[in-house]
Give the backbone structure.
Amino acid sequence: MATKYGGYMGKVMLINLSNGRIREYPWTDEDRRLYYGGKTMAAKIIGDNLCKNTKPLSEENMLVITTGPFTGTGAPSSSRFNISTLSPQTGILTSSNCGGNFGYYLKKAGYDALIIHGKSEKPVWIEIHNEKIEFHDASDLWGTLTGQAQEMLDEKLTKKNGKVPKNGKIVIGPAGENLVRFASVVSNERLAGRGGVGSVMGFKNLKAVTVSGNKEIPIYKKNKFEDLNYNWIRYLRNHPLTGDQLPRLGTAGLVSTMQMRGQLSTKNYNYGQYEDYEKVNGETLAEEFNIVNNGCLSCPIKCARTVEVNGKAVKGPELETLGLLGGGILNSDLGLINKWNYELDELGMDTISAASTLAYAMEANEQGLWDNGLEFGKTDNISQIWDDVAHRRGIGDELANGSKWLSEKYGGKEFAIHSKGLELAAYEPRRTVGLGLGYAVSNRGGCHLNGGYMVLVEGLSLNVDQQNPHGKPDFTVVFQDLMEAVSSCGQCLFTTYAFFPPPIISNPNSWYTKAFCKAVPYTGPVLRLLNKFPEVACFHLPVIFNQSKALHLITGMPVTFGSFFKAGKRGYTLERHINTHFGVDRNADTLPKRLTDVPQIPGDDSTRVPLEKMKNVYYKARGWDKNGIPTKKTLHRLNIKLKDKA
Ligand code: SF4
């Protein structure tokens, strides 16, 4: 619906693949004010429309593709878009975020979001150009790898238009078509990797969507926003994390720090350190494999790497892939990781879940639970395994269901490293217990980012006591909510690295950095007040946190730091509220016993995640009851209300 706010195109389209009907979905300015965009907006749409009996792989399930009010405005790292749906991996709400240029072009075409439901009888792809939305036969694209599919789409568009139109695309690979539970959606070289969004697309027989257009993206106070933006980008470029570490080594640069801190998952999370880590770390990637640094549209950080595989320049691996396909399976060949990373992207599979499922299978074999031929350190057959998973052949057919499903069939639940069915990232939580809590309570399952990314202060950039649980639940709430709000604006979460003033990061031995780190365990009561009454922060934070002011200048909405924070809180709680309809409660907020019951350092009880204790404090800080259900009072306080459904 038309909007008075800048930053929005004012249109959300509902596309029914079953009957080909397309209509506008009513999304009002009141909705925009409460939910901004991104994953939060998608959660509201899904919560309003799906009932608790909806199955992930069903006609009723929706793929909700959203942008945010920052997308396409030139705000730093704001080319993100989000795909939310019910996940075939977890059975609950998932949201998967992606860079590239699809979000930008979706807005240029005049849309803030697409909602795709139903199921096409035959494979189709959708072409969107401004007001025109067309379905095309995709039988010739079906079965292609993600790179080839994108090339073929460009050829088709070129044939039609006489030249390659500037466009954004999303495609799935064979993994999505064959309903691999952790299939991803690919856009250029970027991925909406997590939660199996690709298999929902595959189930709907939707191979691809292309978008292009030439609409203006309105900005409420353009000049003032540009002034703010100039200084914001300068700040990010001068920050030690967003201006140095991430551009220099990418996320791969974190491998060495994690090793030092005992946080590098090794041999399926048996250990937190890998003796050959130097062969698979960011420094080696930079020296021996990196061709050029790269990144998403309108991003001053540029954290991506380009490496060479079989003579071709392709996207390099992220930290999670390096950790899980390196020490995670006892492989020290970085060239192989680059190759596998490329293969997984081409087949359209999430590297985190694929790697972690493989590690589970290796351990199940080692322990005599499942005779599958897979062994730690044995790497000669892995490319074939990926292909078999994507095409559901042989043991690949079972691996395609992920580690939770496998552990229910073969046993070994204590070392199937997932939460709510989603495999954990490469950070070993027994040495970053705040992140351990985050993994367990995260709305989309075992996710470090949705979990609040406490590891950033628990060793990666600051030295807050890794094992001390005090203060961590309250900090987790703050980080989760701020990241929720940032993400709902369409901005990359790496910009949140810059929340910490540069001197604190650059001078780890200074008195103020030490004081900050020492103070964290005692900050609970203060943070609890802020969590309960975010409105008291009725101002904008200067320099370090520009998002709330930018949102006001782009949209014209009345925004303060407090209301921005509250919107994040609303989004996070809304997702939880929806998930409770799908059976999520305290019992679902778990980690495998290896992480909660077995100390990483034998005899040192502090090197395990004291989860149940932290959960109690966390639920209280969130205004949820002891069973982890948001109370009526909390829902009311945050203006959360879903439409009644039959
Ligand atoms: S920081 Fe990295 S992932 Fe984020 S927008 Fe920039 S290049 Fe993309």
About this structure: The radius of gyration is 23 Å. The chain has a mean pLDDT of 96. The first strand starts at residue 12 and ends at 16. Residues 77, 99, 295-296, 299, 301-304, 492, 494 surround iron/sulfur cluster (CB under 6 Å).
